[in-house]
Every structure is written in structure tokens, then in C-alpha cells.
Amino acid sequence: EISHLPMASNRIILDSTELLQNPLIQDAGVPAARATPLPPQKCPSLQRYRKMLKDFDDLEDLYVDVPVHIALAERQRKRFVLNLNDSTPLTIRFSAPVGRKMYYNQTGNPLRPAAVAPGPGVAVGSLVLPCALRGQYDLFVLARHSGALKVDALAEHPQHDWPLLNATHRIAIRTQNRVRKREMIVKWERSKFDFHVMHYCLVIQRLSMDTPRMIFTNFCQAVSAYTDQQPMTPSCAAGGPLEGIWGAPPQRERRLNPRQNVHIVCTGKRRQQLLRRLLPRSSYHLDLFGIHQGRQNLTLRLASSQVNFNRTQPLALKQQALMQLKIGGQHGKQVYSFKVPQTTRQLGEPFMRHLLIPCSGSEIRVKLLRQRSEVGKTGAFYSPTYIRQKGVLPGERYLMRFEPSNDDEALRAQKVMVALSSEALFRDLPELPQNTTVFNVRTRCSRATIAWNGSPDERELSYCIIVFNLPQRNRSVVDFTNYCMDFVPKRVMQYRYFEWMTCRERQQSPDNIETETILNLMPGSSYLVYVTANLSMGKPLPYQALTLHMASQCLDGSHESFY
Predict the structure, then answer these.
(1) What are the tens digits of pLDDT across the range 81-91?
(2) Which of 151, 231, 357, 499 has a CA that sits 20 to 30 A from residue 284's CA?
């Protein structure tokens, strides 16, 4: 049973000194009622509570899931006492309209429970507590009319059968550690269900060897664990412990008590929170609960995550792998690390080759660091670029820091593709020439001839020419340049605005210049052209993109433009 206490512990306390003492008979499963030690003359709510104890001399025990049937005369007063051994949602239903007031643990602070929607067998004035903590609840009832009254206490929320309550919520929790400042920024996505009336509460639990993680299946268990860490603060303000938790106004930052392991922070509709005074080298478990304002504060679990509050280590890069990295970090800078392998077969001075491809053609800079000292850097570049780092130490770890060349480029510099190799050639990637520019040699009404420098790679290699049609309403090449798209022929044809593609083997020319003529172009249209180098096995690499603007009028077939 959730509630069961004999009548002797529920007797009316008349003496003011006896109000501060424990009941005569105390069940081991129920905590002793905590009374406020404030003098009655300084706490008007306690005076009213004591007066009601004297006026309501008719006492009745109330148990969970056990209805009580009584007959009341008009204006008759009745006191019900309910003891809970465990925290649970609580609904108290009345079959007839009555005046009622509820107090928790003899503290003299009246609770403000929400009202249950009236229905069959449920009258106006029924109460609901989304989370009723362990302890004693005094319910004072005043009959408005003569007749029979049924009082029913249920250990459930009136909206417990909401169909979406047990649905899956795919909500991600993101964190950012500031270990030196002992701060953590927590962000999460909004609820997928009724987001316009959903408030949020974050339960933070610090994990250690002495205090393993407590599993909270509902919000009431978290509130109970939080309130058990410290005794109730004597107060004359109305409301119980739960109202003090989610009734506090949301704040941009909250300081956690390092002496406590469980904390609850309610943020209202805000979906981010700054936490301060965290302990370094500790693990924290985060539980996110939603509070449905349109369903009598129904609580539901949304997401959970575990965070190691330690200094974030840079992502380690792998050799011979073309990786797409995010560089749009704080202040537009992002750091990654790589380790030089222990090589003994390499002849001469050890080196590392870096291939850098800005995805959107944005202008970025790169710095190479070792033990916070700069050992190399590049100028601003916006197309595929190689870097050869000499004098590296085998077995040592280096850092690669990306940053935009200026503030305007920070809006576009979001991603970059990086490949590392301690060998002269990349195994699965073709070699691009030093100059990756694609030239517009000649443009006619419906055709264009382009040229580019051939690859110095001696392996079997081919070229693909890929054409995209730029929409007429937006001819900005900045919005459509993407060096990080999948240039495999079968996949690139699925991209939006794809127009035409052809692939061929390399040409044998003494100056190593490749040319190609693109046919069937529309006058007045604009096109974005990519040239890719392809090995028989591996990933293609793009040259610098070229934009073609075709003339809107063509006088005759001999009209052409030279560049």
C-alpha cells in the first residue's frame, strides 16, 4: 500500500508545543512530519492552520485507491488525513462540490493543487498534484450542501492515459564544457508534441563511485531524491516543495551546490541552460522532463544523456582517409589533432602531406601547432590545396586549427574536407596539379570550350565534366559551390539542378593541358561547371569550379566570345 497509518498518529494536535513534536506512533516507512519552528505570531499561515485543527474536529483517515463514502450536512466540516509512503502523482476526486484546502506535513503552508476537469462521478473542485511527495497531507473539507459525499484518492495523474505519453521522443541534448570556468551549457531540441504549451525541467545527477546513478522513471522520483538531500526550509510562503522547484522564474544561469548530487532546474519554455560550479573530472547524467501546461502539468520524460565534465579533446584525424569536418565553432575557429606515425622505412626527412578542400569555396586559413607553438601556417585559400609539412617528429601529436580569413567568410566557412598522409601519394585519391583553375577558353551561343591543367599523377586516371544549371532567380555562385558533394557519377546525377555530365580518359598532350567542349547550352542561362580527377579505385577530387554565363542573344552561328 502507498498509504497506511493508524488513527493514533492522525489525532488533532491542540497544544502549540506539541505541534513541534513527532506523532506518538511513527511508521518506519513514513518520515516524521516536519513542522516549521517559526513562532505563530510571526507566521499567519501557521495560525490559520492551527485554528483549522481546532475547528475541524471530525477526523477521517484517507487511503489511496480506497474510496470513502460519508454523509454531510450543509456547512459541516470534515478533516481527512492521507499519509503517503512514496512519491507519486495524486488525484483526489469529490462526487459533490465542496470547499477544500490542503496542507502538507503540518507546515502550515497551504498547497495550490490544480483542478481536475469535472466529469461522470467527478464534481467541480476535485484536486490533482502532479507530484505528491512522501509525508502527511491534511485535507479540510466544508460541505456546501447536505447529502452523500464520495472522496477518492488515486495514485495517478488524470491524464495518465494520454496516447502520446509513452510515444518515442527523438530529442537530442547537446552540451558544451567550460572546464576552466566550471561551467556547462546544455541545449536541447523542443518537444515534438504540443511544443507551444511544453515547459522543461532538467534533472542533473552527479555520478561517483560512492553514489551510483539513480534511475528516475518519472519526475516525482527525481523531486523526492532532490528534497531528501536537505530538510525543508521553514517558510510561511504558500505552496509545497514542488511549487518551489518549478514555480521559480527561469534564469539564464544556475549555480549548483557541490555538496548535493541531484539538482533540478526548470527553464520554462527556454531550451538552453548555463550551469555553474560543476566539479571537474566528474560525470553528470542529465534527464530532461517536459511539463505539459495544457494537461494539468502532466510530466513526461523526453531525453537523457551522460556527460564527462572534462576538457574536450580535439577530434583525432586518420591517415589516408578523406574526412569532412565542421569548422564553424566558437568565434569561427575549430581545432583537430593528428599523430605522426612511427615510420622507419621512410627515406630522408619525415614529412606529412595535407589535402584541404573548403566545402563552400569559402576563404580560410590553417595553422599547425605543436605544444601550443606554431610550426606552420597557410595563406588564405578557397579551393583544393596541398600542404607539405616538413620536419615532423614521428610519434608526436600536432594540432590543426581552422579559421576564416575575415568576419564575412565566417558565415560560409562551416565545413572542410581534410586528408593526411605520411607518404608521397594518397592511396585512394588522385593528385591534383598545383594550379587547379578551370579556364573558359571560348563561348559560343550554345557551346563552351574549357581547359585545365592535367594531373601529375602517373596512375591510370580519367576526368569527368559535370554541369549544373544555376536558377535564373539567383545566379550567385556562392550559394551553390560545393566541393564536398559526392562526385561519383551515379550519385552526382541525383543532385538538384544537375544538367549534364561526361567522363573520358586523359589526353596525351606535350604541355599536359586538357580541353573539353560542352554542347547544347541555352542562351541567357548560367552554369556551374566542375572538373573532377578520378582513379580507377577511390574517391574523385574536384578542380576549382567555373561559372559560365551564356549570352542572351546570338546574331549568327559565327558569333563567339573569347577569354
Answers:
(1) 999 998 899 99
(2) 231
Which long-range CB contacts under 8 A does 38-46 form with residues at least 24 apart?
A: 38/234, 38/236, 40/16, 42/236, 43/108, 43/236, 44/236, 45/108, 45/109, 45/110, 45/236, 45/238, 46/107, 46/108, 46/236
Burial of 319 (0-12, 13-18, 19+ CB in 10 A): middle
In a domain, 563, yes or no: no
Q: Which pLDDT value is given to residue 36?
A: 43
Copy the grid coordinates of residue 546: 567555373
Residue 560 located in a structural domain: no
Q: What is the mean pLDDT of residues 83-106?
A: 88
pLDDT in the model for residue 9: 36
Q: Write down the pLDDT at residue 212.
A: 79
Asked if the structure places residue 30 within a domain, the reply is no
Query: Is residue 335 predicted with pLDDT exceeding 80?
Result: no
Give percent of the chain with pLDDT exceeding 90.
Answer: 28
Closest CA to 448 of 465, 472, 473: 465
In degrees rounded to 5, what are phi and psi of residue 19? -65, -25
* Amino acid 244: pLDDT: 74
- Quick one: 204 and 259 in the same domain? yes
On whether both 191 and 289 belong to a single domain, the answer is yes
Q: How far separated are the first and last CA of the chain, in Å rounded?
A: 89
Beta strand 415-421 pairing with 461-470: unpaired
Pairing assessment for the beta strands 385-390 and 526-535 based on DSSP bridges: unpaired
| Continuous segment of H or E residues that includes residue 450 | strand 448-453
Residue 491: domain span: 438-549
- Tell me phi and psi for residue 44, to 5 degrees: -65, -35
3-state secondary structure of 226: helix
Q: Indicate if 210 and 91 belong to the same structural domain.
A: no
Residue 543 phi, psi (nearest 5): -80, 180
Number of domains in the chain: 4
Identify the pLDDT of residue 563: 43
Q: Is residue 475 part of a domain?
A: yes
412 shares a domain with 452: no
| More confident of the two residues 142 and 126 | 142
89 and 119 co-located in one domain: yes
Query: Which residue among 421, 453, 469 closes a domain?
Result: 421
Domain CATH code at residue 99: 2.60.120.380
Tell me what the mean pLDDT of segment 173-180 comes to: 86
Segment 426-438, tens digit of pLDDT: 988 999 999 999 9
CATH number of the domain enclosing 301 = 2.60.40.10
State the pLDDT at residue 435: 92
Instruction: Give the residue-averaged pLDDT of 252-275.
Output: 92
* Measured distance CA(247)–CA(268) in Å, rounded: 9
- The verdict on pTM exceeding 0.70 is no
Which of 154, 188, 222 is where one domain is finished?
154
